[in-house]
Amino acid sequence: MGLENTKNQEAVTITLQRILRGAGESGQPQLGPALTTKHPRPIGRRGTWVTIELRRMVAEWFKHPRDNLGVALKIIGPDGAHRRNSRLVETNPGAEYAPYLEVQTQELDSRRGSRIKRNVGLNCDESSQETRCCRYKLTVDFEKFGWDWIIAPKKYDANYCSGDCPMAFLPAYPVTHIVGLAEPPNNTGPCCAPRKLSEITMLYFDNEYQIVFSRLPGMVVERCGCS
Fold first, then answer.
1. What are residue 213's DSSP bridge partners?
2. Rounded Cα distance, 182 and 2, in Å
3. In this predicted structure, which of 40-49, 110-119, 193-202 has the lowest mean pLDDT?
4. In what order do the strands lie in the sheet with 150-152?
5. Quick check: bond before 217 cis, omega within 30?
6. pLDDT, mean over the chain
7. What is the helix (H) or strand (E) element at residue 60, kind and residue range?
8. Through-space distance between the first and last CA atoms of the chain, rounded to whole angstroms
9. Other C-beta atoms within 10 Å of 51: how many?
10. Residue 62 parent element (H or E)
């Protein structure tokens, strides 16, 4: 998130709390444990980025996704109270220091026994109301193409990516976000595209009518992102 500038370097207190689905008959939302950090307010006319580690909070999201209703952000100035005439955080989503949340998870690579980082992608279907970059199911039928030289599979799920790429949403690389902030001429912005592809195995006839078994990489879209 970006803090706006001020003339002093007194500490600004930032508190983040999960908004949880309430229990009982009332079902009123409840606030989870508070994560509080303090940061010096910047000097000069420009604001600055403030990075807050949310690893434990995000881990709880994945453990109980249905109970997660969002995040509450509270910022208190050096005087211990909110001041209406002094914005402490940039609220314009298109501004240079607009707040954004970058989430990464780790999955186990069974071939190497190590963990690798990945950005979380969205999975949607035809009835979904999601407009952002998302992976949709697409079944490819080779027989409809007239490709009778393919023995198996006759069809498979290829999937595809579609949707908008708003600022800082599922960036493929850090430079994707930086380029969006810089707004170079003739730049149309990031596009929704495959982030991870996987292979399929295929049995088919070659040009000499010999049966061939092959592994074809890059045939299935596993995850989508903005790049």
1. 203
2. 16
3. 110-119
4. 150-152, 192-205, 211-226
5. no
6. 76
7. helix 55-63
8. 21
9. 9
10. helix 55-63
Please say whether the beta carbons of 54 and 6 come within 8 A: no
| Helix, strand counts (H, E) of the chain | 3, 16
Q: Which residue has the higher pLDDT, 5 or 134?
A: 134
Pull the structure tokens for residue 70: 């969002």
Question: Could you give the CA distance from residue 98 to residue 91 in angstroms, rounded to a whole number?
Answer: 6
62 CA to centre of own chain: 14
Residue 118 CA to residue 171 CA, distance in Å, equals 11
Q: Where is 201: in which H helix or E strand? A: strand 192-205
Nearest to 205 by CA among 147, 139, 130, 162: 147
Say how far apart CA 137 and CA 124 lie, in whole Å: 8
- What pTM does this model have? 0.47
Q: Which residues contact 121 (CB under 8 A, 6 or more apart)?
A: 133, 134, 135, 170, 195, 196, 223, 224, 225
Residue 10 reports pLDDT greater than 80:
no
Quick one: pLDDT at residue 146?
Answer: 93
**Percent of all residues in the chain with a pLDDT value above 90, rounded to a whole number:** 24
Q: What is the pLDDT of residues 156-171, one digit of tens each?
A: 999 999 998 876 666 6
Q: What is the mean pLDDT of residues 64-78?
A: 79
Name residue, tokens 């979904």: 128
d(CA 10, CA 124): 46
* Chain position carrying tokens 């930032």: 14
